[in-house]
Amino acid sequence: MIAEVHSTAASAAEEQAFLAGVRRFVAEYVLPNTREWEKDRLPDDVFKRCAEVGLMSMVVPKSLGGGGLSCVAYAEACRMLAQGDPALSMNVAAINALCLAHLVDLSTPEQRERYLGPAMKGDLELAWGLTEPDAGSDARRVQTVATPIEGRPGYYHLNGRKMFITNGGRAHMIIVIARTGEKELSAFFMDTDQPGFRLTGRIPTIGVQASWTAQFELENAVGWHTPCTFEQATGFLFRGRLGIAAMALGIAEKAHELAVEYSKQREQFNRRLCDMQSVQNMIADSEIDCNAARHLIREGAEMYDRGEPIVKQASMAKLFASEAANRVTNRAIQIHGGRGMTFDFLVEKLWRDAKLTEIGEGCSEIQRMVIAKQVTR
Ligand SMILES: Cc1cc2nc3c(=O)[nH]c(=O)nc-3n(C[C@H](O)[C@H](O)[C@H](O)COP(=O)(O)OP(=O)(O)OC[C@H]3O[C@@H](n4cnc5c(N)ncnc54)[C@H](O)[C@@H]3O)c2cc1C
Does 160 contact ligand 1 (Cβ within 6 A)? Predict the structure, then answer.
């Protein structure tokens, strides 16, 4: 089950064609709608449309009907999507790295048969539920309890609360991390169309607002056990962090591009902004931030594709890219001056969206702890 070989990977030509399709998708559909989506949420058919260009099966091997893409291509797609709409990038990144990867590597053939096909078509929406009101950075503190249901081998009753779950308000199936013993935690597939699942609300956020961030309660909700340890289930966060790093890079690149364009058009003191040294300094610093983030992400993704451990690299890429995105978007607003603080210019939205990247999938302080632990062990 877990050790099945997923042999078929995409060729370089297939990856190039896929990325060209994503680029068109972002230019024609995602970027033109990002302001509209933020007023409420991503549209109902968004994941179906993502599926049509291969975004809902990036990490699934070709032998299972997916794209079989490399981590380099996965990160590239997350980056491009974020240039169009960071909330969509975050959703696609999390669904691939945390949910689809779990279905591929840690589920039974029966479970895959039920969920994988519809999920890859965008018909079955997914979410990943670890965080709880009292278990955030300290993920092992999860209080949601899983109790075996008598006479139904493999099925458990889940009781507890989850919060900050991306796409949790619209997902048909959520992978719930729950406690099976005093020290043991594991993962469960939980369908949301059952009485034991109670959505307690959407959580409005200052950035990535189009994402349906949700909280919910579980009262004897039925979960289908996916035989895995806590470490296996959360091990998907390493590639996931490269996805969030790529999302941060996409945000930074877009803000940088807009700031450079603006600085070439706006004149004060009979000079263009881009001819003023203080503005040039900001442009230079943002160029370096984007480039350094790009290299760290590329290094981590290439290591993943070679089968090497990426614990440290993923944290370094995520930490640097997310902090860079916050610096770059802040500078982009500064270069736009007062206009940068209005809703007429996209840089303000990118600035708000960037904040999530310093918090989701492990806040910056946790990334520093991971890096230091790897360096000093
Ligand atoms: C928009 C959004 C989407 C999300 N999506 C998901 C999702 O799909 N699934 C999911 O399970 N979770 C999700 N999360 C939750 C996210 O992973 C957590 O918010 C994050 O891990 C931090 O946990 P917390 O919010 O409880 O903060 P806390 O753990 O309470 O930490 C608060 C702050 O304290 C500091 N801190 C905490 N621990 C340490 C430490 N050991 N050393 C130093 N400083 C520390 C940090 O500055 C940190 O930011 C999402 C969050 C947001 C905002």
Answer: no
Q: For ligand 1, say whether the CB of 273 is within 6 Å of any of its atoms.
A: no
Strands 214-226 and 197-202: antiparallel
Ligand 1 atom at minimal distance to the Cα of residue 359: 20
Neighbours of 232 (CB within 10 A): 16
Domains, the chain, with CATH or none: 12-124 (1.10.540.10), 127-232 (2.40.110.10), 237-376 (1.20.140.10)
pTM: 0.97
Beta bridge partners of 162: 216
Residue 309: CB atoms within 10 Å? 11
Measuring from atom 49 of ligand 1, which residue has the nearest CA? Answer: 363
By residue count, the chain amounts to 377
- φ, ψ of residue 16 to 5 degrees: the values are -65, -40
Nearest C-alpha neighbor of 117 from the set 105, 97, 100: 100
118-171 tens-digit pLDDT = 999 999 999 999 999 999 999 999 999 999 999 999 999 999 999 999 999 999
Q: Rounded mean pLDDT of 72-81?
A: 98
What is the percent of the chain with per-residue pLDDT over 70, rounded to a whole number? 98
Contact 184, 121 (CB under 8 A): no
Q: What is the pLDDT of residue 3?
A: 41
Contact 207, 266 (CB under 8 A): no
